[in-house]
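Recall that a protein's primary structure is simply its ordered list of amino acids. Everything else, from secondary elements to tertiary packing, is in principle encoded there. The following example makes that idea concrete.
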Amino acid sequence: MSKSLKRVRAALETASLPAEIREVGQARTAQEAADSVGCQLDQIAKSIIFRAENTGDAVLFLTAGGNRVCADKATALAGEPLGKADADLIRAQTGFAIGGVSPVGHLNPIRAWLDPRLLEFDRVWAAAGTPRHVFPLDPAVLPALTGAKPADFTL
């Protein structure tokens, strides 16, 4: 089991949540993940990382699979200009590779926001630290679990 996958499992267990991690083959995109677990596209909790231009930190936007982050709304929430986060920043901040960024188990604390669309479901699925693993959870636990604040940041 990879270190990334172990961190996600440990974060879920620490929060007393079931660590029902599923290997799905390939889930690099929200559509691939939805197809692999048989759910709606918007039930996939995408972890979108940006680089905060003033601080250089990574910031996280958890969004429903079919939604896109609006750069202007995201910048307003972050309180500073946002740019593209490269693979090195994402790996250094979260410990995950692009395509497998989980909402939990990060190496370092991260400022985060949550798409309210995710809260409309009984169950959502998120990356479990690799592009091949996902886990289900009740989206109602996401704010407390991740520190993400529900906010309108999608197009």
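The mean pLDDT is 97. The CA atoms of residues 29 and 101 lie 11 Å apart.
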